[in-house]
Amino acid sequence: MSVEADLLTWIDSLIVETLAFSPEEGIPGGARMATLAGLCASIAPTAHSLGMAETAACAERLGSQIASPGPDFVAFLEQQIELLQLNADGELAARLSQQRVAAGGPAEIFQDRSMIGDFIGEAREHLEMIEQELLLLEQSPQNPEPIHAIFRSFHTIKGLAGIFNLTSTRDLAHEVETLLDLVRNGALPATPSLVDVVLACADRLGEIVNLLAEDLGDEGVPLPDNTALLERLRNQMMPPDDDPVLEAAGVPVAAGNVMPVAAGNVLPAAVLPESDNVLPVAAESDPAAARRRASDSSSAQVKVDTSKLDFLVDMVGELVIAQSLVQQDPSVVQFGDPRLGRNLAQLGRITTDLQKTAMSLRVVPIRQTFQRMQRAFRDLVKKSGKQAELELIGEDAELDRSIVEQLADPLMHMIRNSVDHGLEAPGEREQTGKPSTGKVRLAASHQSGNVLIEISDDGRGLNRTKILKKAIERGLIPADANLPVDKILELIFEPGFSTADQISDVSGRGVGMDVVKKQIQKLRGRIEIRSEPGIGTTFLLRFPLTLAIIDGLTIRVSGERYILPLHCVQEIFRPEADSIYRVKGTQEVVLIRDRVIPLLRLYQLLGRTPERTDPYSGILISIELEGRRYCLLVDELLGKQEVVIKNLGEYFSAIPGVSGGAILGDGCVGLILDLEGLLSKESFDAAA
Amino acid sequence: MNTVSAPSAAQYLETRGGLPPAAAAAAQAASKHLIFSLGKEEFAVPVAKVKEIIGMLEVTPVPHTPPYVRGVINLRGKVVPVIDLRAKLGVPTAEYDERTCIIVVQPEMARSVYLIGVIVDGVSEVMPVQSADIEKTETFSHGLISANYVQGVAKIRGKVKILLDLDCVISQADLRQII
After folding, report:
1. Is residue A261 part of a domain?
2. In angstroms, rounded to a whole number, what is the distance separating the alpha carbons of residues A277 and A287?
3. With 80 as the cut, is the pLDDT of residue A265 above it?
4. Distance (Å, rounded) from C-alpha A651 to C-alpha B115?
5. How many whole angstroms separate alpha carbon A452 and alpha carbon A430?
6. A647 vs B116: CB contact, 8 Å cut-off?
7. Is the dihedral of CA B14, B17, B18, B23 positive or negative?
8. Residue A183: strand, helix, or coil
9. Distance from CA of residue A520 to its chain's centroid?
10. Cα separations in angstroms, A604 against A217, A557, B12
């Protein structure tokens, strides 16, 4: 390794030497230039002797440039040295792997699970970055920053693939790199079709990485054939003769102009890498921001296994409970020592701070999900032949990690709908006096303890007459129903409203809006629609900041404590005399301000032996569920508190009416009631 | 999850591809069992399956579950289901006293790691059970307990210990049916 080590040392010195240069200074003095020339002269032959052709070539180029410095010398120098370093790293890694292969064969390397796991993680990160930078490049083809970043990422992937002896992957990355180098040197313009090809290659690499991830440790992973992609790449490298003016100017080429080659075409629209179980604590996927922040180097980040994070949060929750147990312990309270009191108060403050920090670990910015949408949007628009742009607002808004993760599907569906059904074709838009390019907006913001996500388009809006007609056809509402406007719009969330004839190539998987609504409700969110004919449609999604904590109302029923989610509770009151009736001997009802509301005895729903059956001695809690009101009879109201939701585990996965447990102040478990499940159980029982 | 509870040596070896045949035979020949009592009977379960033993805690009942499911407890911040072994095996139930304890076990067939508490009358000791001492279930019939739950009986120092199939006892198959 000594020759290789020498080489690396020289390259390092080269970098150190050039660090002192500044572009304003012009061409540096003779002594420094001599040092540089000396270093290059040492690097080139050594690289040659190690069979590192690209590194050697780079060093030679550098040497000749130093001998006769041209304009922009410093910039050129920096670029070349970076390239030199990348090449050296890549080629050294490849050499190393070859040596290892010679020693132990590829199987051995593959069997090293943690190593291939690292490769997968790193490759996915780079692929994600490539995707973002490519979109940036498409928007501003003249900007050199993205192309450098993309180049670096592909280069790293190439090096990694080399280490693991994934020859075809390495070759693909290498070809892309060659193409990008041409763009970097200004030999080729960054046209949309070029971006397409590079995206397709990134997708393919993503597929390969996913295959590797699925088949961890298996040496015989069948990797897809890259021939067609390579062909496309090489075509791109031809100078753009056919349409030079248009492409060179960076004018978007009409979608039809890009000939899809078979392999590129079969790629799924968005193969999005998602690192299993590992999340960046503060998701940092915007490379531009990453660079900005890297310069002030204030926020370093670590990757943490999510299960460790969950455990930490759990334990902090326990600490809070233990702390309050100590603080409220009768013997401590009786003792009444001021110093003990002070120390306990200090402990309390620290615990609260710790809890806040722990809770903040659960939230991540929504940026990553939004950026996934941007990529998908681009592909959707291309396929649909419409013109549209996506505006992202509030990517920094933070919300619960699991919401962010599970939000992608419903968002994708709504954006698909916007592009496919909402936005009109350019001609139609111009006729109605709108700009031919449609606009879809994806915005996130915090609002009164909730996160608000808005998906809006300036398309044709929802057609109420059509919705009504369809709902009547499908038998969702009676033909003579007289519905207010917002109720009509809400019909699209009814199961069975969306049907197969609606699915186009773009609109995708046949998931209806009812599924979207279910997914959002599962995340404890709410969805609203606003739509004006001819002006556009807006979907409003509201989510709690975190799924881990719920604002609950602690109640007592037959000697047991339960927690009701506060967001369903409307009113709490003692029943007035003679306000409870039994209609036709079946369902009990309460009369509140001339409204008749069904009365449900919670002890019955929970299958408990009642402590007392007289409803007038208990408390009524009025709740609203899916637009209907109910009154629950409970024995006692214990108070309102925030509780940490704990899963009841696999053993109880199917219990209706209970959504989880919470550790109460005294260390006992209280069950959190799932009213929807409880009432459907009730209706089920009643029907049976 | 290994931060929460370190896997036992046996499980560790199992995941590493099993014990060498000789060692496996030796392990089987005398594996350590936890002895606990239920009424007049003494039962044995392999120590490897037991995560911990705790005294009786306050149990929160869970609605719409079979009677043997007593509910959930707070095990240092984890919500853990507990079942009453007397009720599960059909032995007449008894009041819980200071000897009553919860044996926390980790089911083997679980898709994810989770724990279940089993309420027993009391635990007595941990002792090696020789495979030579074990009589298989075919030849064994016990008046009270369903043979499904019994792997065999072992005679140790003149006393009979019933080898309980814990995985079978805590399987949710019957729970699923009820819900």
Report:
1. no
2. 22
3. no
4. 9
5. 32
6. no
7. negative
8. helix
9. 15
10. 54, 10, 47
**Does any CB of chain B come closer than 8 Å to the CB of residue A277?**
no
Backbone dihedral angles phi then psi of residue A63, each to the nearest 5 degrees? -60, -45
Q: Whose structure tokens read 């109880």?
A: A652
Cβ-defined contact of B63 to A669 (cutoff 8 Å): no
Nearest residue of chain A to residue B111 (CA atoms): A650
Given a cut of 80, whether residue B109 has pLDDT beyond it is: no
User: Which ipTM value was assigned to this complex?
Assistant: 0.76
Domains in chain B: ranges and CATH: 9-178 (2.40.50.180)
Structure tokens at A615: 């409803």
Which residues 335-354 of A have a C-beta within 8 angstroms of B? Answer: none
Please check the confidence at residue B101 and state whether its pLDDT lies above 90: yes
Q: What is the pLDDT of residues A86-99, one digit of tens each?
A: 888 777 777 776 66
Boundary-marking domain end, from A510, A544, A578: A544
- To probe the interface with A, which of B62, B166, B174 has the most A CB atoms within 10 Å? B62
Same domain? For A185 and A55 the reply is yes
- Give me the sheet containing A438-447, strands edge to edge: A388-393, A438-447, A450-457, A536-544, A526-532
To which residue do tokens 């309270």 refer? Answer: A333
Q: Residues A324-366: pLDDT tens digits?
A: 778 877 888 787 788 888 888 899 899 889 988 887 887 888 8
A244 touching B (Cβ < 8 Å): no
CB contact set of A254 (below 8 Å; sequence gap of 6+): none
Interval A659-668: pLDDT, tens: 888 888 777 8
* DSSP code of residue A646: B
Helix or strand or coil: residue B17? coil
Note whether A326 and A473 are same-domain residues.
no
Strand partners, B80: B73
Q: Verify that A508 and A567 share a domain, yes or no.
A: no
pLDDT single digits (tens) A674-686: 887 788 765 545 4
A632 bridge partner residues: A600, A621
pLDDT at A572: 92
Please indicate, yes or no, whether residues A499 and A569 belong to a single structural domain of this protein.
no
Q: Exposed (0-12), middle (13-18) or buried (19+): which is A222, by Cβ within 10 Å? A: exposed
Using a CB-CB cut-off of 8 Å, the residues of chain B touching A605 are: 63
Q: What amino acid is encoded at A457 in this protein?
A: D
Provide Rg for chain B, Cα atoms. Answer: 16
Are A370 and A355 members of one domain? no
Element (H, E) at A461: none
| Chain A residues with beta carbon closer than 8 angstroms to that of B172 | 650-651
Of A361, A367, A440, A449, nearest to A408 (Cα)?
A367
* Beta carbons of B64 and A311 less than 8 Å apart: no
Considering the domain architecture, whether residues A488 and A514 belong to the same structural domain is answered as yes
Rounded Cα distance between A107 and A102, Å, is 11
* Listed residues A208, A243, A278: the one ending a domain: A243
The DSSP annotation for B69-131 comes to EEEEEEETTEEEEEEEHHHHHTPPP----TT-EEEEE--SS-SS---EEEEESEEEEEEEEEG
Q: Which residues contact A114 (CB under 8 A, 6 or more apart)?
A: none
Give chain A's count of helices (H) and strands (E): 24, 20
Q: Which residues contact A233 (CB under 8 A, 6 or more apart)?
A: A175, A176, A179, A197, A201
pTM: 0.52
Pairwise CB contact (< 8 Å): B79 & A661: yes
Tokens read off for A663:
């550790």
Helix (H, G, I), strand (E, B) or coil at B154: strand
Asked if A95 and A144 sit in the same domain, the reply is yes
Evaluate whether A428 touches A435 at the Cβ level (below 8 Å). no
What is the token pair recorded at B63? 């609605």
Note whether A552 and A642 are within 8 A (CB). yes
Nearest-angstrom CA–CA distance, A512 and A499: 7
